[in-house]
Amino acid sequence: MTAEAADPVEAVGTVAPAADPGFLQRHGGAIEYILIPGAALAGALVVFGIFVAMFGKNPLDLYFYMYYGAFGTWFSWQNTLTRAAPLILTALCTALPAQLGMVIIGGEGALLIGALSATGAALVLQGMPPLIVQIAMVVGGVIGGGLWVMLSGALRQYRGVNETISSLLLVYIALAVLNHLVEGAMRDPASLNKPSTREIGAANMIGSIPGTDVHWGLVFGLIAAIAAYILIYHTVFGFAARVAGGNIRAAKIVGLNVSKLILTICFLAGGAAGLAGMVEVAAVQGRTNANLAAGYGFTGILVAFLARQNPLAIIPVAILLGGISASGGLLQRRLGLPDASVLVLQGIIFVFVLASDALYGRIGFLKGKS
Amino acid sequence: MADGSIGLWTVPLAVLGGAIRVSTPFLFVSLGECITERSGRINLGLEGTLVMGAMSAYGISYLTGSPWLGVLAAGITGALLGALHAGICSLPRVNDIAVGIALMLFGTGLAFYLGKPLIEPTAPRLPAIDFGWWSDIPQVRAALRVNVLFLIGVALAPILYWAFRTTRWGLLIRTAGESSDAARAMGHSVLLIRLRATMVGGFLAGIGGSFLSLFYPGSWNEGLSSGQGITAVALVIFARWDPLLCLWASLAFGGAAALGPALQSVGVTSGYHLFNAAPYILTLAIMIITCSPKRTLTGAPAELSITR
Predict the structure, then answer these.
(1) Domains and CATH numbers, chain B
(2) If you placed Cys at B202, which of B78, B166, B178, B277 could pair as Cys (CB 3.0 to 4.6 Å)?
């Protein structure tokens, strides 16, 4: 304990442990990967319970309504899954570059640009068969979001600009671009109170999975997460990416094209978030306006970290956090908690999850103590 | 231009006024972050600290009737958030950038939660000093209404510059930032130095937040800060960790941020949102120009994970 705690170089110098490909192998048991984030989540829930208790609310009521609002009924399950869909996609925006040791937090910006370009594609192709319009929207969303995040990757690779800061700055720039277009060139003159683009048309909406109110975006998210998992863990490209993430110098020595890796991964990452924007337009909003900046991009960062940047683990974690945000409305109505309480809980979870990084490899020590 | 109608002069005047008024939060956050980063750690959570500072300053000012107590409360809140950041970062294998992102989300969430009842009421605001008394032109007078916090910030920059160079604690912070081994060999706890540096950084960022809610724009709402904190963190990088350059960069940023509203006031409304994004575009542009993939930046603390 003392030897490592006294060594801040290690704490400061390394990127998230999940970016190290050898980490999983060295520590074997997947138990740690469930136990430690689970414990962090439980700890965060306890602290949040204490927090609301200070405001005179009963924490047990809180937990009950959170469960009920997230997973208690078929209705709440559908609400949860609908919210999980964009979270899976925006989480990939952080998790994919993390394989290269990059910390990208600009998923929100890629989502907005993806939504704009998808809407643009749909409006240009008005009157074409819906399937063609929808495919164009997917392509538009992926390319728009992909290029947006690829910009951060390119700046990092060619100019040495820190990708965390540049990707976050690009979120604000994306929001400005969206507002500029929505209130200017792309504005629907009929939208008076809330400036919006024209509707993409009911026929072009992607609709719901039969028998549910959950839209097809969930399937997009599942496919993207599984594809990302296969890409990272079962292809030569993914192996190369993980090598570069583990040791960039070694990667260059063995002749890997690091620039190509960074640009491709960043494009795919942004493409996922851009697809989230397309889904929000084509399945929920039907048009682009400032409502799209609902924070899915930022919650996605938390999902990625909680899933330890593993694309498959993102799926259950996104459902869990989708559930938490789905229960927000019920907490507001039944307990009178402000809508920001979900944000507070997410922040507490994030802090606990990061602090729990210190526990990996020490679980035996903890067991011995208790 | 002394005869009242000043026409297009409004724009440069408003930009000048903005440089003075809008720059203050940038200045405080960047000076605070400068101290933290010089000690070898980066705190991206100052965006959250800024919002928490704004909220607590407004709340305390409303409850006690004294805006200065509000400023103090904002500083203390910021220092506590800084302590939280430093505390988590001192655990082994914890990444300071990630903790910063977490605290950014946590700080804004907590501020929105606690600040809900504060959107309606009006709190006493900080007074301003009228440096434009000599002029008859209202725009000049408006531009030169200066808040004391701005003057404190301007004074703080050379003081910090001097302190980094000549004082004992300035040397300690720089040692921790350049080589933690050297600091340890001297018998100092690097974690403790960084804890203090992060708390002081948080304190200053909190005060920067109090300026937002108590002077300009001068009220509490959830859209109060949109990225000023993170822009200020980026600003430290191209100010090369130099407090004096932080001052000039903050002034430039304040001017850039005032450009949108200034153009709107003379009737140029077409690119309003794009002009509002000017500080972010400027930050990105300057980072692109000043960074280089080949060498580390001059003046960068060697222990800083962001420069690598």
Answers:
(1) 7-290 (1.10.3470)
(2) B78
